[in-house]
Amino acid sequence: MVRAKGHVARSVGEKDVHRRVAHVLVPKDAPEKRDEALQRLNEGEAFVDVAMAFSICPSKHNGGDLGWIWKGIMPPSLETVAFEAPLDAVVEADSEYGHHLIKVIDEREAGLLSQMSVQELYDVLHSEKKDDYLYIDCREEGEFRTAAIPGFKLYPLSQLTDWAKNVNEEMDHDKPVVVLCHHGVRSMKVSQAFVSMGFKDVKNVTGGIDAYSMVDPSVPRY
Q: What is the pLDDT of residue 160?
């Protein structure tokens, strides 16, 4: 059953979550399209088929799937509805782009993004727990050749859209992820990307490899 403009309040103190949503976007000046889409959904037609038939958004080719979202990346009018709607419900919202029929497909707890000092990193790398982590270096290949910390694998920020496609298959989500760059700025962006991809514990190395070289002289400073 379609729930039009429905709202369900979230409890105080509820953990931050990501939601996977799909939508059907129709022009605001075409209420007949909205009505027909709602009717077909109410009659039991699959959301993906309705999206492909009615949506004017390029996501129609994926059945309207927008992927995983988190608070702060959508227009407020859409975010409020998307995060208050029950799972599997279809709700409505307006934005500058048109009228949206939004379906919440799934929900997961958001991962934790924290800072790791270079001393903490040094201690982990020289402990029995070193194999319990995934180590990501998001600098460029030339920088990596100049100075690198053993155990870190190169995943350049500049190629994020390419390697992110295979991350879920290649990496263990149960392991904490440690992300490093030169000074800690690029690694913060990559850390946020790992959280958005569903990794539960992501650590950004404060000060990057530049600061790390001060606690481990075997790593060249550049």
A: 95
Structure tokens at 181: 């760059």
Nearest to 19 by CA among 108, 138, 149: 108
Give whole-number Cα distances, 37 to 59, 102, 221, in Å.
16, 12, 60
On whether the pTM is more than 0.85, the answer is no
Size of the chain, expressed as the number of residues it contains = 222
How far is the C-alpha of 172 from the C-alpha of 5, rounded, in Å? 39
b/e for 120-151, b at 16 or more Cβ within 10 A? ebeebbeeeeeeebbbbbbbbeebbeebbbee
For residue 10, give the nearest of 95, 81, 110 by alpha carbon: 81
The rounded percent of the chain whose pLDDT value lies above 70 is: 93
* Active site (catalytic) residues: 181
